[in-house]
Write a structure and sequence with these properties.
35% of the residues lie in helices and 14% in strands. The strands form two sheets. It has a five-stranded parallel sheet with strand order 5-2-1-6-7. It has a two-stranded antiparallel ribbon with strand order 3-4. α1 links the parallel β1 and β2. α3 runs antiparallel to α4. The two termini are 14 Å apart.
Length: 238
């Protein structure tokens, strides 16, 4: 069984969906420490003038250790209207905009108190549109007490995984020897970003929100995001 995991991000990039697709089980790290420097409340979409950063405002919390599932959205700011208008400005002329936009507007029109609930709703919708059916669970259900590599090992043991897929930066902290002692094979993603036709740019711009692919390529998006990348069997046989 191949396991992968990641913190909840806002309007995620394509690499996350590849990481989810190849796994048998994907864990959302909802109970790890939140950092305001991550992509958890922000991401880029593409306008004809270049990338635009969308940011969900969050309430400042003074605890020394705020977890992802504790971060609250600052709904006193009219951020949802701004994001909808920005997406419309960027993609209203894209080939598949009309096919998908109403589902995203429905999410933005709901009142979310916690950032993780917004991110989870968007992730669920994008997984549906990309036809990715991997089982998704939250880390908080497993009562994990360790950090970094030991935490991932604890998760792998509790889910009875034979393989675990880290992100590319996992090589900097994963204790591969400890995993192998426990008969779990650690592997590392190196996502090969696809190039596709972008309405708003003559020179391809990568690592945007997955919205860019969906609005530009529609039902071909899944095939494109997985192209020229390792499959589940590849990771299981490394």
């Amino acid at each position: 069984m191949l396991l992968s995991a990641h913190q909840p991000t806002y309007l995620p990039w394509l690499g996350l969906f590849h990481k989810i697709y190849v796994a048998d089980l994907f864990i959302i790290y909802d109970d790890v420490e939140y950092s305001r420097y991550g992509w958890y409340n922000r991401n880029y979409i593409l306008s004809k003038n270049g990338p635009i950063l969308l940011v969900v405002p969050v309430k400042r919390q003074f605890s020394s250790r705020v977890l992802h599932n504790q971060v609250k959205i600052n709904n006193s700011e009219n951020w949802k209207k701004k994001h909808i208008r920005s997406i419309e400005f960027c993609y209203s002329k894209s080939p598949f905009y009309k096919q998908y936009i109403n589902s995203f507007i429905d999410i933005f029109n709901k009142q979310y108190e916690y950032l993780i609930d917004l991110n989870s709703a968007i992730l669920k919708l994008l997984l549906k549109e990309f036809d990715i059916k991997t089982e998704i669970k939250f880390a908080s259900a497993y009562n994990l007490k360790n950090k970094k590599s030991d935490r991932a090992l604890d998760l792998a043991l509790k889910t009875k995984a034979s393989h675990i897929l880290f992100g590319e930066l996992g090589v900097n902290y994963a204790d591969t020897e400890n995993f192998e002692k426990n008969l779990i094979k650690p592997t590392f993603q190196n996502y090969n970003h696809p190039i596709y036709k972008q309405l708003n740019s003559k020179k391809f711009i990568s690592k945007l929100s997955a919205l860019d692919l969906l609005f530009n390529c529609g039902k071909d998006s899944k095939k494109i995001l997985l192209s020229n990348n390792l499959t589940k069997n590849d990771y299981l046989n490394i």
